[in-house]
């Protein structure tokens, strides 16, 4: 029992690192563009299907396909901003929610029509290989997910807090009129952040594909999971999002280890309610 718990904690933490990257992508879009993107998980789902198609038709390794898919989805994200999100800037939360939910609905039903509800799995040779750390055995796919998630989160932190581009983006998020008065093109900053946010979702879809498989329903699931990370980690808090993603990954994995599917998933909701009561401003946020 004890070793199974340790195994579940470490394995869940690795996947949780990738969850955090997906959640950070959503919080970036909301923090800078001020739009709640309910279609966030749908882009993850489409990226997962793209990776599966490249593997199924051409034998391209899922992780190698990220070199093409992630930059492509950055461009998709920029176009998504200019064509759809920019006209919604300043509109009511209800209008934003309805439009982005409609986008999610269209994407999900298109995927359902093209691929059916069948789970699409990639069978890579190294999926059965594991890294042994004493009694703890970690599948390579989960180790890769954890490492990629950590590197992606660190890269975004360095970009936004250690570069001139990051200063411009944070200025646009903090006070748009003043940023524009200083010569910052806030629309370009918002487009850049949307591209990064959607690219984060795409990275999650590709990296998690060998672990979770692709299905039309995964879009809604990851949108909800991303909102959980935002609420638990605190809006705009990178380290908080990382901690929240890891906590959710551990909870999900322990639930799957010791309970059946429905009860295991219920643990995430129980955790959410408990932490929301105890830490309503986020895991690492102080009371305001």
What can you see in these coordinates?
With 288 residues, the chain is an all-alpha fold. The chain is built from eleven helices and two strands; from the N terminus they run H-H-H-H-E-E-H-H-H-H-H-H-H. The chain has a domain at 24-219. The protein has a two-stranded antiparallel ribbon. The longest helix has 32 residues, at 2-33. The radius of gyration is 19 Å and the shape is globular.
Break the fold down into its secondary structure elements and pairings:
Elements: H1 2-33, H2 40-58, H3 62-85, H4 93-115, E1 130-133, E2 136-139, H5 140-162, H6 164-174, H7 176-181, H8 186-212, H9 218-233, H10 238-258, H11 261-278
Antiparallel strand pairs: 1-2
Helix pairs in contact: 1-5, 1-8, 1-9, 1-10, 2-3, 2-4, 2-8, 2-9, 3-8, 5-6, 5-8, 6-8, 9-10, 10-11
In total, how many beta strands? 2
| Parts with pLDDT < 50 across at least 5 consecutive residues | none
Helix vs. strand class: mainly alpha
* Element pattern in H and E: HHHHEEHHHHHHH
Major sheet description: 2 strands, antiparallel
Summarize the structure.
With 288 residues, the chain is mainly α.
Provide the descriptors you would attach to this structure in a database record.
globular, 288 residues, 2 strands, 76% helix, single chain, 11 helices, mainly alpha
